[in-house]
Amino acid sequence: AVDAWHGVYVDVDIDREVLWPDGKRPEKPAYEGRVHVFPAEKPGGFLGRVKRWFGLKPPAPQIPDAVRQAMAAMVDAYGAREGECGALQVGNLRALCDELDALLEVVQLPQSVEALTSTIESYENDRPDDDPHIQGLCHAWITARFALENRTPLWLVK
Predict the structure, then answer these.
(1) 30-33: long-range contacts at Cβ-Cβ below 8 A with a sequence spacing of 24 or more?
(2) Cα separation of 48 and 44, whole Å?
(3) Does this model's pTM top 0.85?
(4) What confidence tens digit (pLDDT) does each residue in 64-104 have?
(5) Closest Cα to residue 91, out of 158, 22, 149, 154?
């Protein structure tokens, strides 16, 4: 399986591959183990645009340590495997669909777009934060099947 960070599932007969942008693995990735958090700039009014035009920007907001720690934990949990930063992970779309089918059987949900869409909709109004694993499974199955039926890649980019 590919990690939920920088990967793609395609309809090819492979187990899992790692592709490097220039075709070869670098000796030492430039950003292994570092997390960058860039705060969004607040849009200003007319005066803010004039200041930016003259190169007068307000100081960048400070990122709280709790936010940096949360981002680092997310990268550790969902990021590339050790030594694979900067690579594109490629997985087998049919194998993913088979795995999702098996998971639906375990949780006793039918394998149809209509049934899974109905399941997702049952969470939308009153309990959107309940059972995120079930909702994620439903979305993953619908999306993976769409990709397979339409012969398109299923991209995972966080």
Answers:
(1) 30/86, 31/85, 31/86, 32/83, 32/85, 33/85
(2) 5
(3) no
(4) 888 888 887 877 777 777 778 778 889 999 999 999 999 99
(5) 154
